[in-house]
Design a protein that fits this description.
The protein is an alpha+beta fold. It is built from 12 helices and 18 strands. Bound molecules: ligand BES and manganese (II) ion (2 copies).
Length: 462
C-alpha cells in the first residue's frame, strides 16, 4: 500500500471522530442567536490547522465573522495552492423532520452509503468537505510529501452571502496570492463515477412585500371589495413564468449564454437516470422549461423560484381575515454572462410594473453573485482529473452544477486565478435539507485524492 492509503487507513477513526466534534458546534451564520458558536468554530479550525502542520495560522477579524487564514511556505520557486472552504452552516429547520439532532452527529448506513454516513448539519456542506483538506494537509506534512506552498482561507459567512470575505479578499491580494484555488464544496455524480464541477450558477436573491389595506380586515365585511395582498402576490408570482415555463421578466434572457449543439450533446453523455431521479424525490414527473433536459434545466439554464411565502393567518384552526401585507423570498439562479445586479434591477422594475391598482409593492434585494465556468484545458483541471483517476480508477466527467458559490467569480477578478472545484458530496446527501449527511467513503476518498492533486499540480507547473 502507498503511504497515502496507509496513512488514511491508520488514522481514519480519528479523522472521523475529529469531524464529529466539529459538527457538534451549531455554526449557523444566518441566526444571531448562534454568534458565539460560529466564533467558537473558527477557533476550532485554527487549532486544527496548526496541528495539521501549518507554519502560521491566524484569525482574521472582519466586519462580520472571522476568516481563518493559515499557510505553509516551502519555496518561492514552487507553486502555491489556496484552499477555500466555509465553516458556517445553514439553519437546520424544520427540526421535526430530522431523525436525529442536527448537531448530534451519528453514523448510519444507507443504500447509497453502505460504509456509513455521518448525519449532521454541515456534514457535507461544508464542514466535512472543508475538513478533508485539513486532514490531507496533516497527511502530507506528517509523511513529508507536501510538494508545494499552501494557504488556507476558511470563512464563516458563505451561507449568507460571503460579504466579509469579499471585504477581506479586496484588502489582501498579496497575502492571498496563489497559482490555483482549490475548493471542495460541490458534489460528484456517484461513488463509482467521479466528476469535476466546471460551472456554478450565479444568484440574485430578493424579498418582496405587497401591501393592501392599512390593517388586517374581516374577510366577510371587506372580502371582494379590496385587493387581497396574498391573492395579488400569488397572481404576480404565477405570471413570472409562461406556459412553457420561460421566465417573463423583459430582458431576463438577453445575455444568457447559448450552448452549442455539440456542447449539449457532450453534456448528455453523463450518466443519468430520469427514473432514479424521480424515484429518489417521490415525484411522478419532472417539471421545467420547455426544450431542455433535466440536467440542462438545473445547470445551464437560469431559473426563478419562490423560497418562502407568508402572510395572513397560519396558526391553528381558521381565522377569517384579509391580511394587510404579503411577502415572498425569491431566488433567481443565473448562468454565464447574466449580470446579477442587472437581473435584480430587471426584476424590481418588472415586479413593480405588474402590480395592480390597490396595492403597493416593495422589492428589497438581498445578496447575489456571478456564475462561474472553469475551462478544462488548464493544469489545475488536469491535475484534479489525474488525482481522481488514481483513487477512483475512472476519469472524472466535467459537469456544470446548478448551485452557487458567488465568491468564486470574485476570486478570479481580485486574485486572477482559476478555481478547481473538487467536490466529493452526492446530490442525495441532502445539503440544506433535514438529515444532511456525508459518506464515510466520500470523506476518506477526499482525504486520499487531495494530496494527489498537489502532487500533479506541482509536477504540471514545472
Ligand atoms: N456548497 C453550496 C453550493 C453548491 C452545492 C454548489 C452543491 C454546487 C453543488 C454552498 O454552500 C451554497 O449553499 N451556496 C448557496 C449560495 C449562497 C449565496 C447562500 C446556494 O447555492 O444556494
Ligand atoms: Mn457550501
Ligand atoms: Mn450551502
Amino acid at each position: 500500500m502507498n503511504t497515502i492509503k496507509s496513512y488514511v487507513e491508520a488514522h481514519k477513526n480519528r479523522f472521523i471522530d475529529e469531524l464529529i466534534e466539529l459538527l457538534k458546534i451549531p455554526s449557523i451564520s444566518a441566526d444571531p442567536a448562534y454568534t458565539q458558536d460560529v466564533i467558537d468554530t473558527s477557533t476550532a479550525i485554527k487549532t486544527s490547522l496548526e496541528k495539521a502542520g501549518c507554519d502560521h495560522v491566524e484569525i482574521c477579524e472582519t466586519p462580520g465573522y472571522p476568516i481563518v487564514y493559515g499557510h505553509k511556505h516551502i519555496s518561492d520557486d514552487l507553486p502555491t495552492v489556496l484552499v477555500y472552504g466555509h465553516y458556517d452552516v445553514q439553519p437546520p429547520d424544520p427540526l421535526d423532520l430530522w431523525e436525529s439532532g442536527p448537531f448530534e452527529p451519528i453514523i448510519k448506513k444507507t443504500d447509497i452509503h453502505p460504509e456509513g454516513a455521518i448525519f449532521a448539519r454541515g456534514a457535507c456542506d461544508d464542514k466535512g468537505q472543508m475538513y478533508m483538506h485539513v486532514k490531507a494537509m496533516e497527511l502530507m506534512t506528517a509523511t513529508d510529501q507536501l510538494p508545494c506552498n499552501v494557504k488556507f482561507m476558511i470563512e464563516g459567512e458563505e451561507e449568507v452571502g460571503s460579504e466579509s470575505l469579499a471585504w477581506f479578499v479586496e484588502r489582501n491580494q498579496e497575502k492571498l496570492a496563489n497559482d490555483v484555488i482549490l475548493i471542495s464544496d460541490t458534489g460528484m455524480i456517484s461513488n463509482t463515477q467521479p466528476s469535476i464541477t466546471t460551472g456554478l450558477r450565479g444568484l440574485s436573491y430578493v424579498e418582496v412585500e405587497v401591501t393592501g389595506p392599512n390593517r388586517d380586515l374581516h374577510s366577510g365585511l371587506y372580502g371582494g371589495a379590496v385587493a387581497n395582498p396574498i391573492n395579488v402576490l400569488s397572481k404576480m408570482i404565477a405570471s413570472l413564468h409562461d406556459e412553457n415555463n420561460h421566465i417573463t421578466i423583459p430582458g431576463f434572457y438577453d445575455k444568457v449564454e447559448d450552448l452549442s449543439k455539440e456542447e449539449r450533446a457532450e453534456m448528455a453523455k453523463a450518466p443519468f437516470s430520469l427514473e432514479a431521479y424521480k424515484k429518489a424525490l417521490d415525484i411522478d414527473s419532472v417539471y421545467g422549461e420547455a426544450g431542455y433536459t433535466t440536467n440542462e434545466r438545473n445547470s445551464i439554464r437560469p431559473t426563478l423560484d419562490v423560497n418562502g411565502i407568508w402572510g395572513g393567518y397560519t396558526g391553528e384552526g381558521a381565522k377569517t381575515v384579509i391580511a394587510s401585507k404579503a411577502y415572498a423570498k425569491i431566488s433567481m439562479r443565473l448562468v454565464p454572462n447574466q449580470e446579477w445586479k442587472e437581473i435584480t434591477e430587471l426584476f424590481k422594475t418588472h415586479f413593480e410594473n405588474i402590480a395592480p391598482k390597490g396595492v403597493t409593492v416593495k422589492v428589497t434585494p438581498h445578496h447575489g453573485g456571478q456564475g462561474y465556468v472553469t475551462p478544462i484545458d488548464n493544469i489545475g483541471y488536469k491535475a484534479a482529473s489525474k488525482a481522481y483517476e488514481d483513487t477512483f480508477g475512472k476519469t472524472p466527467i466535467p459537469q456544470r452544477s446548478g448551485g452557487s458559490i458567488p465568491i468564486v467569480s470574485l476570486f478570479e477578478k481580485e486574485l486572477k486565478s482559476k478555481t478547481i472545484l473538487m467536490g466529493f458530496g452526492l446530490d442525495s446527501d441532502a445539503i440544506h435539507s433535514p438529515n444532511e449527511h456525508f459518506g464515510i467513503f466520500n470523506y476518506l476518498k477526499g482525504i486520499e485524492t487531495i494530496p494527489l492533486f498537489y502532487k500533479y499540480f506541482t509536477e504540471l507547473s514545472k
